[in-house]
Structures are given as C-alpha cells and as structure tokens.
Specification:
- There is one protein chain.
- The chain is α/β, with parallel strands linked by helices and 351 residues long.
- It has a single domain, classed as Rossmann fold (3-Layer(aba) Sandwich).
- Helices cover 38% and strands 15% of the residues.
- It is built from 13 helices and 8 strands.
- The chain has helices spanning 7-13, 28-38, 128-142, 156-168, 184-195, 201-212, 219-228, 230-233, 244-251, 255-262, 303-312, 328-331, 333-350, and strands at 51-58, 61-70, 77-81, 105-110, 149-154, 174-178, 291-296, 316-321.
- The radius of gyration is 20 Å and the shape is globular.
- It comes from Patiriisocius hiemis.
- Residues 78-184 form the AB hydrolase-1 domain.
Length: 351
C-alpha cells in the first residue's frame, strides 16, 4: 500500500473477411448472451462507451468522479476501488483479460482527487469517512444493489471497502478485500520486524539513514527501494518490464492525496498521516456478507493477517497467492483471477 508513491519517480528513471465465422460453432443461446454482454443499446452510457462522470456531494461542494462500465450482467457487477490513496483505475486493466469471458460486469472508478476525476485543492477532503460516502453516491448512480453489487478493494481500496461494508453492508452482495490488513499499526510492525530485515544489511542501513533524516526525496533513497524492495514485495516483475497500465497508473498518482493520508515515507505510515492509527480488527466480526480476503506470499501486507480476516468475518473465504506480492493481479494471475472469479460465481449461485 505505502509503496506506490515512489513509482512516479521510478518510472521516470526507468482473421480475414473470407474465413468462416466462429459464431457458427457457438450455440444460439451463448451468442445471445455474448451480444447482450457487450451491447450498449438502450443504456445511458452508450455514447461514451460506458463512461459516466458522476456528481459527488461533499462538504466543500459538488465534484465529478470518473467511472467506466465494461459488460452487462444484472446479477454480477463489481466496483473496483483502487489503492494509493490517489492512484487510478489503470492498475486494474489486467481485469480486461479475465472478467469479460466469465460474463462479469465491472466498473473502473477514479476516486475524487485521482487523475480522471476532479482534483480539488482542499486537503480536508482526503478523509476516509468522506470517501465512504462518495462510494455510496457512486453505488446509487450506477444502480448497484444487494442483488448484484460486489465491492472489490485493494490496498488503500481495501481499507475503503472495509469501512464501506461496516457501514453499508446491506447494500452488498459480496465483498472482496485484496492485499490489505485490518490494522495500519500491524502493517507497520510487519514491515519493520519481518520485511525490512530481509534487505541486505548495508542497504537497510542506508535506507534507515534517509528515513531518520526524513529525506524521502533523496535519489539514492528512492533508487535503493526501487532496486531492492519493489521487485520483491510490490510487483515481482523487473521494473523495465512493468505493464504499460502500471506505468500509466503510477505516473498519474496524486501526491497531495497520497501524502495527506499515507505520509511521505516508503517504509510505513509516518508523521501526521490520517491513516497512521487506522484499525478495524475489533469490528470485522460485524460483517455477515460473503467476504473474500486475498493475500500473497511476498506482499507488503502479512498474508497471515489476510487469512485471519477470512476467519474473523462471519462468512469468509481466503485466497492465497503463493507467487504474488502487493499487485497480485499482475504477478500471480494464475491464482488471483481463478480464485476471485470462483468466489463471485459461487456467491451468485448461492444467492
């Protein structure tokens, strides 16, 4: 979660018409379902290809947030909450390779302050409770309800998803918490006691020197983390091979939102960041809706705590990504997507 701000800087461094149609081999019923899934006919977002700018009421006025629908399914609709805070929907473009063929409708969404949405210059808006109300307004505008609404949140989006569910779980059909633990103090402890010591001693010593001096923009500090930390715990792909969607998303991050809520450090939530003491461990047992918790072996978040979430809620399932890190939708797709899709379809079948 905390490791995403640095990527802005690191990225800067760094068939013919004559062939018979395959449709002839598909049953008419499946052809109809496929055509319905991709059809925009009769939809109010047809002219924009699924994009809607949704007005959001806030204590500081009305602003617009960007959403984009992919597919049509009246029973399975997934709203994607990106991380950061201040990241963009672009880090989920890998979903295009997996959800459509399963008939799952999903919504890209840039939260207020993020690149494709309005970016008001008011730090008081970067508040978790306000973001919860923003999600509720987006839900209503998109027509999502307890019969079809799955909320997916990863990293900071996982915090937002938990907070939303604790207030509005009656509006949900299913909840997915991906790569996020229920306590920032616990995340800090895991980072300091487990992950940091895995670094080469001389590297850790240099990083901590800059941490202690609060010299977070130092080029050597940033370079050490990009070289030694990110490829192990954020996305287990060499930086020069990162997908274009990742590069675009990270380059579009809004630092004002990020630093206000997460702080400037790459080694934990520090200073007066608003998420510094966030913790909902004692409340998760209130959740009764079907809940999937996704953890990864090499994540910045302790996978054991992700498994604990699944056991703490009243109707939980755990998905482990043995080859993944913080962005498992890219570095462990063989486990991430089959498990996620299986959960969504099972909840739908059981409802």
């Amino acid at each position: 979660m905390k490791k995403l701000a640095l990527l802005i800087l690191s990225i800067l461094i760094l068939g013919s018409c004559n062939q018979p149609s395959e449709k002839n081999n598909i049953p008419d019923s499946e052809i109809a379902e496929t055509e319905d899934y991709w059809s925009f006919e009769g939809r109010d977002d047809q002219a924009t290809g699924g994009i809607k700018m949704i007005p959001i009421e806030t204590p500081k006025g009305t602003f617009n947030v960007w959403t984009k629908r992919v597919g049509n399914n009246p029973k399975m609709k997934v709203l994607l909450l990106h991380g950061g805070p201040g990241m963009t929907h672009e880090i989920y473009e890998s979903f295009d390779g997996f959800f459509p063929q399963e008939g799952i409708e999903y919504y890209y969404y840039d939260q207020l302050g993020s690149y494709y949405s309005d970016q008001p210059d008011d730090l008081s808006l970067w508040d978790t409770a306000r973001f919860v109300e923003e999600v509720e307004q987006v839900r209503k505008a998109l027509g999502l309800n307890e019969d079809n609404f799955y909320l997916f949140g990863q990293s900071w989006g996982g915090i937002l998803a938990m907070e939303y569910a604790l207030k509005y779980q009656d509006n949900l059909k299913g909840l997915i918490i991906s790569n996020m633990v229920p306590s920032i103090p616990d995340y800090m402890k895991y980072n300091e006691e487990v992950l940091a010591p895995q670094l080469p001693p001389e590297v850790l010593s240099k990083i901590m020197k800059y941490e202690e001096a609060e010299d977070y923009s130092n080029e050597e500090y940033l370079g050490l983390i990009v070289e030694h930390y990110y490829p192990k715990h954020v996305i287990r792909i060499p930086p020069d091979q990162w997908p274009n969607s990742i590069n675009r998303g990270f380059s579009h991050l809004n630092p004002d939102v990020y630093v206000t809520m997460q702080g400037p450090s790459e080694f934990g939530v520090k200073g007066d960041a608003t998420l510094k003491n966030w913790d909902v461990k004692d409340r998760l047992k209130e959740l009764t809706i079907p809940t999937l918790s996704i953890g990864a072996q090499y994540d910045t978040m302790n996978p054991k705590e992700m498994e604990w979430i699944a056991n703490e809620v009243q109707n939980g399932t755990y998905l482990h990504c043995p080859n993944g890190s913080h962005l498992s939708q890219y570095d462990d797709q063989e486990h991430f997507f089959p498990g996620l899709i299986e959960f969504i379809k099972k909840v739908d079948k059981d409802s």
